[in-house]
Amino acid sequence: MNHQNDLYDYPRPAVAVDCVVFGVELDERELKVLLIQRDNPPFQGQWALPGGYVRLDESLDDAARRELAEETNLTDIYLEQLYTFGAVDRDPRGRIITVAYYALVKLGDYLPQGYTDARDAAWFSVDEAIRLAFDHDCILAVARERLRNKVGYEPIGFELLPPKFTLTELQNVYETILERALDKRNFRKKILSFNILDALDEIQKDVMHRAARLYRFNSEKYETQKQNGMNFQL
Amino acid sequence: MNHQNDLYDYPRPAVAVDCVVFGVELDERELKVLLIQRDNPPFQGQWALPGGYVRLDESLDDAARRELAEETNLTDIYLEQLYTFGAVDRDPRGRIITVAYYALVKLGDYLPQGYTDARDAAWFSVDEAIRLAFDHDCILAVARERLRNKVGYEPIGFELLPPKFTLTELQNVYETILERALDKRNFRKKILSFNILDALDEIQKDVMHRAARLYRFNSEKYETQKQNGMNFQL
DNA sequence: TCAAAAGTGTTGGGGGTACACCCATGT
DNA sequence: ACATGGGTGTACCCCCAACACTTTTGA
User: pLDDT digit string (tens) for A91-101?
Assistant: First the structure.
């Protein structure tokens, strides 16, 4: 075949995008995922990843961003293609191929707790998010694995935090994603050695113990360090 | 949308797979890619990645394997999904989304030099493979980058070599992919420390200097080491 | 005997890991 | 004063990187 036919009149699969939207609660040390409850068959009443069909006049990335904006009202967030799932029987309605994306959102800052939109939507702990519709369990598992790997060699933890954060908060994000404890002193040494954070002259407020210094991610510094071949392996 | 409509009567994009087939010549130290010359518009006469449309009754992986078998007569080779390319205008004939795969083939062993099939097919040095049809330049670039990363933390160099190979050949594969020289002693120490190779009681033949010992990849050992959490970072 | 590649050990330095105590703040 | 988390330094060890010569074989 090799793209050589100008006409391609055979039946086509449908193409969708699904988004694995990750967030963290700053206090609970848990990785969360945004799910939507289905109100139609198949899988009626079950929870599923937000997603939808790709339109002919939009790229895959645009489709993912559009769906995400529709579901979460969030724009300008970290979004990356994950994998494309194309088993023949993954959707009982017919042949639907889905291009999965994963997104990191600054839950604490922008999204009200217990956010829901017109459709029933809710944040779930990733461990509670089981028995999802379609092959979404599988997609979620792949996304968690990818996130774990990614965080090991690129500094994306900030994407899950508000613009100003403490090093302890950042460490909690990493521990949550990696599912293991990190040594506080080593973590700080490492992160600060990347030279991509600005220490602010500001400290936590409304906290009932010694207030921690706030930091901000500096993307110019990050680009500079990346040019210089810095590798951000934790 | 969210997969909630049982009917989906909107126009659908076409879905294709394209394969970046990598190989190495054992003597020339160059990474090669298999290309096919187009004999129809658009991009008539230009070289392109082998690929074709996905059928409704086969998974994406199956489609990639089928195309690969059709193009190279090879089965049972290393194949992995790369990325899905879905820019609106990537194909002038209309909306065609392509799921790209990359494959590693044991060129020296199985494929005759200068292999071609009915369509004009040929191996190109990856550096000479430019001005390809569609967005295939871009796909190739992404594949090279992925291969470079992958080889750094998973031992896939063997996939490009015949079953029996010398350590120097293996090192050449790594150097070719990574595009940098490696220290011979350190390379051998590292590779052998993974404990995934069997040293054979066999040596090179028909070589006009001291013959090197042959090794074979042992996939049981590999699985064992992987269970034990061995990481294969070079 | 020469050419060409195979094969082999050691050392120094940097970075990762492990580890414990004092400090600042609010109640 | 006490409870709670914030913040800091050091020592050891392992692994990575750098480095050069001898051996084997065929021509």
Answer: 999 999 999 99
- Give the HSE-up count for residue A141: Cα atoms under 13 Å, Cβ half-sphere: 8
B159 CB within 8 Å of a chain A CB: no
Residues A108 and A220 in one domain: no
Count of domains forming chain A: 2
Which residue's C-alpha is at the least distance from the C1' of C9? Answer: B185
Contacts of A4 (CB under 8 A, 6+ apart): B38, B39, B40
Q: Residue A4: its pLDDT value, please?
A: 43
Best mutation target among B1, B3, B89 (most A Cβ atoms within 10 Å) is: B3
For residues A122 and A27, state if they share a domain: yes
pLDDT digits (tens, 9 = 90+) for B112-146: 444 444 468 888 999 999 999 999 999 999 999 99
Which tens digits make up the pLDDT trace of B61-101?
999 999 988 877 778 899 999 999 999 999 999 999 999 99
Q: What long-range pairs does B6-11 form, CB within 8 A, spacing at least 24? A: B6/A40, B6/A41, B6/A93, B8/A14, B8/A53, B8/A93, B10/A53, B10/A55, B10/A56, B11/A56
Q: What is the pLDDT of residue B116?
A: 46
Question: Strand D and chain B: which residues 188-227 have CB closer than 7 Å?
Answer: 190, 207-211
* Per-residue pLDDT tens over the stretch A157-179: 999 999 999 999 999 999 999 99
Contact B56 A134 (CB under 8 A): no
Global model pTM greater than 0.85: yes
Residue B218 sits in the same domain as residue B197: yes
Confidence of residue A70 (pLDDT cuts 50, 70, 90): confident
Residues of B with Cβ-Cβ distance to A59 under 8 angstroms: 86-88
> Which residues 63-92 on chain A approach chain B with CB closer than 8 angstroms?
63, 67, 81, 83-84, 86-88, 91
Helix (H, G, I), strand (E, B) or coil at A72: helix
Count of Cβ atoms closer than 10 Å to residue B23 Cβ = 23
Q: Which of residues 166-225 of B touch strand C (CB under 7 A)?
A: 166-168, 184-186, 188-189, 203, 208-213
In a domain, A2, yes or no: no
What gap in Å lies between CA B214 and CA B68, rounded to an integer?
29
> Under an 8 A CB cutoff, do A1 and B53 touch?
yes
Residue B146 shares a structural domain with residue B191 = no
The integer distance in angstroms from the CA atom of B208 to the C1' atom of D27 is 8
Domain residues for the domain of A189 are 157-227
